[in-house]
Amino acid sequence: MRTILPGLPSPHLQALATGYCQNASESGPRRITVYISGPAISILSPSPTSPSHLLQTIYDDDPTPLQSVALDEPTAKIAVITTSGTGRIYKPTINTLLPINSPEREPRWVLQGTFSSSPSPSHPATLSWGSDGELLVSSSSSLQLWQTSRPEGDIHLSWSQPLPNPAKMALLSYDSAYIASVGRYDKLVKVWRRLSYGSGGAGTEEGVDGARFDFVYLRHGDVVTRLEWRRRPRHEGQTVENVLWTVDCKGRVKLWVGGDGHGMRELRLWGGLELGMKMGWVVQGGDLMGAVEGVVERGRGEGVERVVEVGRRCHEVVVGLDGKGGVKVWGLEDVGWEPGAQKRGGVWEIVEVKGVEGLDWGGGAGEHVEVQSYCDGKGLLQVLVHFFDGRIEVYETDLAALVDPNPKRKRLERVAVWTGHSAPVKKVVRNFSGRAVVTRTESGQSVVWKHELDHGKGVTMLRRQVVIQQAGHVHRMCVLRKGRFVVFLRHEKVELWDCRGAQARLLAEQRYDVPGKPLCLIVLPRHKVEDYTTAHVATITSEKEGVGWEVKFPFYRPNDPTVKVANGRGEGDQEGCIREFVKFTLEDAGDLGYVLPVDPAGADFHVSGFLDVFARDVAISYTHSGRVEFWTARVGHEGKGVEWLSTSSLETGVANPALVSGSTLKKAALVSADRSTLTIWDIRGARLEYEQKFENSHTIRDLDWATTPAKQSILAVGFPHRVLLLSQMRFDYLNKGPAWLPTREISIRQCTPHPIGDSVWLGGGHLVIAAGNQLFVHDREFEASTSLVPATGLRIPHRKGKARQLDLFEVVDRLNGPLPVFHPQFLSMCILAGRISLVHKVLQALRKTLRFWAEGDVVDDYLGLDLVEFYAGDGSLHNGGGHPREYLNRRQSFDDGDEPFSEETAVDINERLTRIGIPQLSGHEQIQLVDIVECVGVVEKQRRSLDENGARFMLAFRQHALRKGRANEVHISWREISWAYHSTSQDVLVDFVTKQNHGRMLWEGARESGMFMWLGDNAAVRQQFEIIARNEYTKGEDKNPIDCSLYYLALKKKTVLQGLWRMASWNKEQASTSKFLANNFDDPKWRTAALKNAYALMSKRRFEYAAAFFLLADHLHDAVNVCLNQLHDLQLAVAITRVYEGDNGPVLKRLLEEEVLSTAAKEGNRWLASWAFWMLGRRDMAVRALITPVFALLSTTPSSPPPDDGNLKSKSYLTDDPALVILYRQLRQKTLQTLRGATKVTPKVEWEFVLHSAGLYDRMGCDLLGLDLVRNWEFFHPAAQAMTGLGGEINPLRLLKRRGSLVVADIPIRGGPLSPLATPGGQMQVPGEMKTGGGGGTTAKPKPPPTVFEEPDANSLLDSFGF
Questions:
Q1: N or C: which end of the chain has fewer CB within 10 A?
Q2: In this model, does residue 1279 exceed pLDDT 50?
Q3: Are residues 224 and 256 in the same domain?
Q4: Which among 81, 116, 151 is the end of a domain?
């Protein structure tokens, strides 16, 4: 926390109190400062990092204003009183059950009790603490002493004395021996001397319980304005002589001396001095000695000897300031010695200096100022100056500087300003640059604040510029020209205020009439940037009607914001004015819910002059149905008209959002109607990036955007008592990692009970939080211990010279931006892109770096490699790939002057990675890197039998096994299943998966690997399914045949199951089951019996066993439904269907069309849809599914359900994947069907898909791969050049730039029998239309391609067709 503005100080004599309290901390005495701000009591204590550390804010529920506050040093009790005479006592408490270092272990003040005094709004009451918890209350008619330290805990009136005239102030000496009081405009000070303390018994009718006082008058030559007693000694048990300082209106100071704490003599005049200054204060003995000791300890400068002399000669020091740079310091020697004694004190004028810079405090001539001072723990004097215009300024000074006669020496350094509002803040609005904000309270008061950069230690970063005091409701407001001007939109008029001077001026106002409720006040881009005296603002109503105003400012110098104005006119002749210049209608806004200005979020101000999608957005709108739209606008030449353009829009499906916020980067945050669910959208990319549901007690109240200089987004989510900072992260499609992460939580619950009213980002990453009448300003730096991101896990660098500090922008940039080339995600994406030779180069370079690494060395992000190698292309990424021979050739092309990459190389790299921690990687990322290196070594070992798709699956499966313990995934994703499905080395993958399951494959392991989804050979499917059936039977010691019934019955091996039941003699169901299985289930009678048993098992929730009996009854469809609806296992449903009826059965087709494709459409899963279409023989649709939304492909089928707009999962960013473009490139030229599907993709769609995939690479931190993609992508020939015969259709072969003989023919000649020259894998006749189940018949699906590579037969080459 950098700055706190604790609230507007009340303009009362006793609105501020400070003391060195003994009971305010477990570690010892502590400085506590208390002041009144409206209905609140702000309690502060300086900390090592901030002079404005706010301990607590107490809001008083009394509707009458607070008037006075007093702090008791021994007990740290706080007493307050209102104008109605109601007083309250608060005592400190510490929760000792909490950890010692917990911030909640700070002292908290709770109500002890209340008391009542005589009310008089015209004569404010005063408070003063004495000894033993005795409190003096001075009201309009009496003086009262209240006892607050009784064992019973109640507050008891111990003495009361009526007054003939109201007292302006009354103070009790530290030992309760004297009371000094003075009336308004009174020249006599009345001093009450205590004669007895009383017994505390029953009192008289006046409330007296035995305490007795007499009094004397102290005469003065003029009206007395101030009284001050000598403070109590810091050390318990010490006593000092009572001394009273009185000051009259002419600045004359008199010192009155009494006896010690036991003599209680009458006060006598000791001496005096002519202050002659605007303000002054007394540095009392304990503070003076502490300041002297501090100067001696620091021991620098020539003033040390002078300070030592001051400490030796003086008991107190009086400091006077004239407010114009003049300083005068007096020393008081031996205060308390009586005249005529052997040793006599006096007044010593230490220094008088004129024209000191920095001490021209200004203020009006009649402005009242109250000053208090104390010495802090560092031996520096802290001066609290209470200006009655609404601020308390805290200054710090060294005693040596204060008494230095050199006029050039800086005396006081301002370290804090305490100000704010006197009522709860309702709204905070910033200007575009974030250098000025305006705050508005519920009562209508507005304050303009200037955001100052950190020019020195502790300088506040928010400076109050001007207060706009005008009642009335304000719909919207905006800040213009860095806070020089403010525009208010009221109910029927718009106002322009000049905020450059000491007081705000209303320059102009304009009435307006437009139907609907005004929703916003938007600043439109300037037509001419250099015309800084003109601005255009507009409002849009709920009826989609709008009004635009032209605002003319008085001429001013742009570099001087403080030019004085008179009557609304500046230095030139132009007078400030505002006029209506256009009315418009936002036609295409839909069912408009709200319109808001776009949060600039740190964006640079650019005015292109063009109205296009690249222009800066100025507004965001949303409809009741959840459509979010960004708008840009352009003002016509010479201020004639305004044009609006929608730059992007998205149907989010979030109905009636309660809050919406958008940034210029086209990020939008939406909050659900119940304010419990937050979603973050990329409107340009049309994707959902984040969704989080919070508990009902955590109602979302505010959303604010910020952006780092590297264009990384930060979202501040405001709750009632905390603000959660979310930062965007790199996309992680491999691990399905979150796209947004909470990085920091700012809680104000310990400081104030008032809920947050609003928050806003300033320039440079500073966040302003308004809660009640207070403003909390947080900068980018924060403690590492408070970070929600583990600094050790992400290796986040600390600030230079600040080991425990983190920078918010650096943390966010660490979570985003380009990855080092040795990062596991970058290497994984290279492998998916087919850049295996590039991976070898990176790992060889990493090995070389680690070989010569020493402690403290910096590892280059690019390992010294030439960046051209990452995007120049090596042929692997730019063709279909998939053959082991191509992989081998690419591997042999690698040569960097070192030994080839091998499994031994991988072992050596991993051995070094276990000993060396790479700074750019977290611990988990380094484990992932080790696993990738090992996997690359395994792939290299099997390079002759493993193709690229197999390598991709192997890498993904290893990573899945690595994160299985910390993720909820039960199987690998459909992306990895697709790689294995299109692999030609599936037998190697089966062996690999079996080894990963320790040679004993159960259904759980098969489902985890997706084996029965990606196996292409149906014979291999049945073989592996029988292995699983055998392993399921033998997995337990008892060998229960129930566990394997479903699998053997799917294999139609009832006799095997019968034999297993005969051996299960221990099972109580053996006899009945064996007898039942002995029947002939081709007979309808026994099929009906099997169905009855299946339904009986369903009622007993034995679902898997029930599915087995459905298969026994030859009801495959019912067994599939049980797997889907009761077991929720899609893979099991597909597996038993493929085993039971093969890959061409009607149940499998219906399962794929009705269940799989429907699920793919709901989830937006293009991998699943492509797999399903390929299984259906619709390879053209399988290619299109990779590039086209699934619901668009299914919309042509009448039975297909419409897309669910409310399903957010289908809009998630995880439905995108840059690896889709890799599979699309590979499949589109694999067969004639896929080529025909590629012809249905328009060049524009393919262009946008490639650019979109490159953007995903960039968001993943793999920008070099995105550059490689757009640089080397191969587009097909234009369709017009490919038109030939084939019944008027496009000849797919003409789209290729390579030999058509490498393309498998899977389309028959139209209208004739299948060509005898067609490949065995391409004998399915498909219709010409693109609808599933369209016209034309299909033959039985032939045997799928072999799982190992075979040389194609010459008869299968397309050249033999003679096209």
A1: C
A2: no
A3: yes
A4: 116
**pLDDT-based confidence at residue 540 (cuts at 50, 70, 90):** very high
Q: Which pLDDT score, from 0 to 100, does residue 879 have?
A: 46
Segments forming the whole domain that contains residue 79: 1-116
Question: Domains in the chain: how many in total?
Answer: 3
213 and 306 both lie in a single domain: no
Model confidence, pTM: 0.85
Looking at the domain assignment, is residue 951 inside a domain? no
pLDDT of residue 933: 92
Q: Are 282 and 405 in the same domain?
A: yes
Question: CA of 120: how far to CAs of 115, 166, 184, in Å?
Answer: 15, 9, 14
Please indicate, yes or no, if residue 151 is contained in any of the structural domains: yes
Domain co-membership, 128 together with 260: yes
Which of 381, 396, 419 terminates a domain? The answer is 419
Q: Which two tokens stand for residue 40?
A: 């609140």
- Across 755-862, where does the E strand assignment appear? 756-761, 767-771, 774-778, 781-783, 805-807
How confident is the model over 818-850, as pLDDT tens digits?
999 999 999 999 998 888 889 999 999 999 999
Tens of pLDDT along 17-26?
Answer: 999 988 777 7
- Asked if residue 1016 is part of any domain, the answer here is no
- The 3-class secondary structure across 1189-1229, one letter per residue, is CHHHHHCCCCCCCCCCCCCHHHHEHHHCCCHHHHHHHHHCC
Question: What CATH number does residue 196 fall under?
Answer: 2.130.10.10
Whether 628 contacts 668, CB under 8 Å: yes
**What is the distance between the alpha carbons of residues 1111 and 1099, in angstroms, rounded to a whole number?**
17
Angle between helices 304-313 and 285-298 (to 10 degrees): 150
Return the pLDDT at 806. 85
Beta partners for residue 16, in sequence order: 35
- Give the three-state DSSP class for 3: strand
Does one domain contain both 125 and 77? no
In a shared domain, residues 123 and 266: yes
DSSP-assigned letters across all residues of 248-289: ETT-EEEEEE---TTT-PPPEEEEEEE--SSEEEEE-HHHHH
> Rg of the chain's alpha carbons, rounded to an integer?
41
Same structural domain for residues 95 and 213? no
Alpha-carbon distance of 232 to 241, in angstroms, equals 10
**778-790: average pLDDT:** 81
- Tell me the per-residue pLDDT of 474-530, one tens digit each, with 9 for 90 and over: 999 999 999 999 999 998 899 999 999 888 999 999 999 999 999 999 999 887 777
Tens-place pLDDT, residues 1052-1096: 999 999 999 999 888 898 999 999 999 999 999 999 999 999 999
Same domain, 133 and 3: no
